Amino acid sequence: MDYILEVENLCYTYPDGTEALKDINLKIEKGEKISLIGLNGSGKTTLFLNLNGVLKPSKGKIIYKGKEIKNNRKDLNMLRKNVGIVFQNPDTQLFCGNVYEEVSFGAVNLGLCDDEIRRRVDRALISTNIYDYKDKAVHYLSYGQKKRVSIADILVMEPEIIIFDEPTSSLDLYHSKQVVKLFDEFSQKGTTVIISTHDIEIAYSWSDYIVVMKKGKVLAQGVPYDIFSKEDILRECMLEKPLILEIFENLKEKNLIKSSSSIPKNKKELLEILK
Amino acid sequence: MIIIDKIAYSSNLKEANPLEKFIFSISTLVICLIFSKIYLSIFVIFAISILITKRAKIPFKIYGGLLLIPLLFLFLSIIPLLISFDYEGALMVFKVINIKFGVTKYSLNLGLKTFLKVFSCICCLYFLTLTTPSTQILWVLRKMMIPKIFIEFMQLIYRCIFIVLEVSSMIIVSQNSRLGYRDLKRSFNSISKLLSSLFVMSYKKSEDMFIALEARCYNGEIKFIDAKYNYSIKNILFILFFLLILIFIGFKFK
Predict the structure, then answer these.
(1) Looking at the partner chain, which of A54, A77, A137 has a beta carbon nearest the beta carbon of B9?
(2) How far is it, in rounded angstroms, from Cα A153 to Cα A110?
(3) How far apart are CA B206 and CA B163, in angstroms?
(4) B87 alpha-carbon distance from chain centroid
(5) Cβ contacts of A120 within 8 Å, gap of 6 or more
(6) CATH placement of domain A3-241
(7) What angle do CA A15, A21, A27 make, to 5 degrees?
(8) Helix, strand or coil for residue B125?
(9) How far is Cα A72 from Cα A55, in angstroms, rounded to an integer?
(10) More confident residue, B160 or A275
(11) Which residue of B has its CA nearest to A95?
(12) Three-state SS for B230?
């Protein structure tokens, strides 16, 4: 099997001695949709920064497309170019006065020619639906608009993997759905999308693969049904079972539906079974 | 400052080429300074004010209010110019204790000339600031080959001012909601806490921002692509015509 990104025995210790990541092993396939779940402070953001090359692992290695990333400028820039991070708070990411300039920053850093940059910026602005605000000042945008600018920021670099750090936190339901729809569009184009989330329903219905973290360790990983059907994992990580799955299992137990029916991933599929 | 920033983003001329606006206001300013003529200054004050209110569609109330601020300082600084110890042949003489002061024809003329000159320059600068958002001014500075380091600073400061203001207003609200400013003693206490936490937060934010920049292949230089602005022949012709009129007035009248 060809993996786009592999993490082997990764450990990370902060300069102050906090062990943030302990022996992480991950294998990520191209085009997969991955959710990272875990309580606050379980090391999700630190892992992301390691994957992107901003933090350097204390131990272990990161392998991108079969090639180990060494601690030199060339390799790190290659990793940063191909693994984009959208930070949780758009305000820490946005630094330019104006949306167009902000979005172009990443593309210019790649050293592309002017025409290509403009083409990419326009494309990123259109696909995140903020083209109308391109001449606006960043600080007069609403939170949802800033979030979309921060997504366009990364999109413009056309990375193979996009990481979203808690993309739906502080967004209303409508905008969360819009953002999730965007993720689907990215993954249809072949981009690998990794998100961290506290929203169990999104993690269950959206992702192909789930990684559960606790206190800097990967506690479990697998397809959504395998993770959420195991009571002990759920208990240990203080997670709850997704509503859809719980209803489905209850119905099956009481023999109200055929036991052969496939496991529903979302509301639509559950209703289909109940017909 | 924020009010001016907001006005600039809503002005009718915000889409015009920043370089045109910059050249127009700065060359008008320079002409006023070089000629230093009363009639020229009066003409510029009226012409620019009309342009600001009619062409850029900035409400006269806001523009007038903004003008009052520098005018107050201008009046105060003109007074010493009007008064001189030379009271012989003065138009007006007054005595304070035993020292006589006078207002001569010469000093009156000088005061009036200076007043109008400064007033016209203020109008020119207001034209620039009220029609050109800060990002466009930075664009002009980049086009003028100002050293990059200054522009990067200006740009980061411009963005960070808004972050600091936002964070501080949030802290103030949270302090207020817990009676942080109920009396003088509490207020001083709260302000000191506000300042120290602002400092710490700014430091933290700058670190976060650096991480976010690094994640996007930042390597010591902030580079991005500029928005494109089209030149308008109509505007350029107008600017040339306007400047010619100014020079004509400058040579022809007192």
Answers:
(1) A137
(2) 13
(3) 11
(4) 38
(5) A107, A112, A156, A158
(6) 3.40.50.300
(7) 135
(8) helix
(9) 12
(10) B160
(11) B159
(12) coil
DSSP of A242-255: -HHHHHHHHHHHTT
Q: Is B6 in contact with A102 (Cβ distance < 8 A)?
A: no
Q: Which two tokens stand for residue B154?
A: 């200006």
Quick: pLDDT tens for B165-180: 888 888 888 888 888 8
> Tokens 């593309």 sit at which residue?
A107
- Reading the block at residue A201, the tokens are 């329903």
Residues of B whose CB is below 8 A from A54:
211, 214-215
Task: List % helix, strand, coil for chain A (3-state, nearest 5).
Answer: 45, 25, 35
Q: Which residues of B touch A121 (CB under 8 A)?
A: 225
In the chain, the amino acid numbered A108 is V
Can you read off the two tokens belonging to residue A1?
Answer: 């099997």
Would the CB atoms of A95 and B208 count as touching at under 8 Å? no
Model ipTM over 0.85: no
Cβ–Cβ gap A109/B138 under 8 Å: no
Q: Side by side, which strands form the sheet with A83-86?
A: A83-86, A161-165, A192-196, A33-37, A209-214, A217-222
Q: What is the pLDDT of residue B1?
A: 61
Q: Is B13 exposed, middle or buried (0-12, 13-18, 19+ CB in 10 A)?
A: buried
Q: Which positions in chain B touch A89 (Cβ < 8 Å)?
A: 208
Work out the burial of residue A240: count CB atoms within 10 Å of its CB; fewer than 13 is exposed, 13-18 middle, 19 or more buried. Answer: exposed
Which candidate, B71, B57, B50, places its Cα nearest to that of B15? B57
Half-sphere CA count of A4, side-chain side, radius 13 A: 20
Kindly report the CA angle at A153 between A148 and A154, in degrees rounded to 5?
105
Task: Locate the domains of chain A by residue range.
Answer: 3-241, 242-275
CB B44, CB B126: distance < 8 Å: no
Cβ count near A214 (within 10 Å): 19
The answer to whether the Cβ–Cβ distance between A157 and B224 falls below 8 Å is: no
Q: Which residues from B are below 8 Å from A82, CB to CB?
A: none
Looking at chain A, which residue has its C-alpha nearest residue B206? A92
A204 CA to chain B: closest CA distance, Å?
28
* Confidence at residue A125, expressed as pLDDT on a 0 to 100 scale: 93
Give the tens place of pLDDT for each residue, A158-198: 999 999 999 888 888 888 888 899 899 999 988 999 999 98
All structural domains of chain B with their residue ranges: 2-140+229-252, 147-215
Give which of A169, A167, A170 is closest to A181, Cα–Cα.
A167
With beta carbons less than 8 A apart as the criterion, state whether B22 and B140 touch.
yes
Angle subtended at Cα B194 by Cα B191 and Cα B199, rounded to the nearest 5 degrees: 130
What are the two backbone dihedrals, phi and then psi, of residue A62, each rounded to the nearest 5 degrees? -115, 130
CB contact under 8 A, B217 and A135: no
